[in-house]
Input
Amino acid sequence: MSVIVIGGQFKGPPNSGNGGYVCGLLAREAEGPATAVLKARIPLDVELALERDGEGAQLADLDGGLIAESGPGRFDLPEPPPSPGLEAARAASARYIGHSQRAHPICFTCGTERDEGDGLRVFPGQLEGAATGVMACDWTPHAAFAEADGAVPPEVIWAALDCPGFFAWVEKEGRHGALLGTMTGEVLRRPRAGEPCVVVAWPLEREGRKETSGVALYDQGGALLARAHQVWIMMGPRPAAA
Output
């Protein structure tokens, strides 16, 4: 067991850790796909207990309260769509809702009020010519997030894949209230600092309060770097049937 602190830099909501970042921390040592489940609010700037075993990891407070856990995962969904390319991704990013509305402005992943090297500044917008809710943006990892070998760590990659899946449903259905519940992801190759990448996200299905999204990360040549699918838990009144 190790004691870790998730600093305020890595917030999603104002008083909770970024869900994708925390899922990536738990899945950091996984070989192949991993599934992480968030069980409770993720406290910031306090000591937490992280325990790993051969199958996964658990994150708890120091009183033993379970916050999140991970284990082996698998993908039962179709392969991700191809990359639209950097030019189309940049054009989509210009349509990011956060440029015109206050949509999570302090979030580590998608916050417009976060500076380069402090937040990831992943700004997904509707992809031109695609079905409603298919989002894309460009993302170039900052050197501040690179490890000693120059590559970005898994938890930052998982964080970059977090919010685009949320905004896929915002675009499709016009609602903002949902929290990440489960994320299954796999990193095939870690991008390096300064390497231009493309993020794509799309809505998959809704069942009651659960909305499922797919997300993928590509290099500038279109090779798949990482992929994920997510379950978002809607807040507010129970929605009408799809």
The CA atoms of residues 149 and 192 lie 9 Å apart. The chain has a mean pLDDT of 94. The first strand starts at residue 2 and ends at 5.
